[in-house]
Amino acid sequence: MVISLDGELNVNTASDFSDRLFTSIREGEKYLVIDCALLSYMSSAGLRVFYQGLDELEKIGGKILLSRVNDSIKQVIRMVNLDSECPVFATMEEALQSLSP
């Protein structure tokens, strides 16, 4: 399952992302690829949604993969060590291929 983020992920938009993320998990998705190509900003509210999703996916052996992350977002992800739990891929193709056996 791919979820695309666009614009800013902040206190005003985090609930929409959370809804999409947790709906996917409730519908049985174990592996979620988050396409960040159009994401321009991420606040702590956005980071919180990632960590909540990771906690839920960990219970079922799932994971979140990030793709096409710009340098400023990558810096935030590295600063909070999110990249140790959510692998970051340069392309969607690489992210999706990493899920293949």
CATH H-tier superfamily? STAS domain
Q: Give me the CATH fold name.
A: Transcription Regulator spoIIAA
CATH architecture: 2-Layer Sandwich
Low-confidence stretches: none
The top-level CATH class is: Alpha Beta
Oligomeric nature of the chains: single chain
Strand count: 4
- In DSSP terms (H or I, runs of 4 or more residues), the helix count works out at 4
Q: Could you give the distance between the termini?
A: 16 Å
What value does the average pLDDT take? 96
Please summarize the sheet with the most strands.
4 strands, parallel
Topology:
Elements: E1 2-9, H1 14-26, E2 31-42, H2 44-58, E3 63-67, H3 71-79, E4 88-89, H4 92-97
Parallel strand pairs: 1-2, 2-3, 3-4
Question: What does this entry look like structurally?
Answer:
By secondary structure, the chain is an alpha/beta fold. The chain has a single domain, classed as Transcription Regulator spoIIAA. It has four helices and four strands, in the order E-H-E-H-E-H-E-H. A four-stranded parallel β-sheet has the order 1-2-3-4, with helices on both faces.
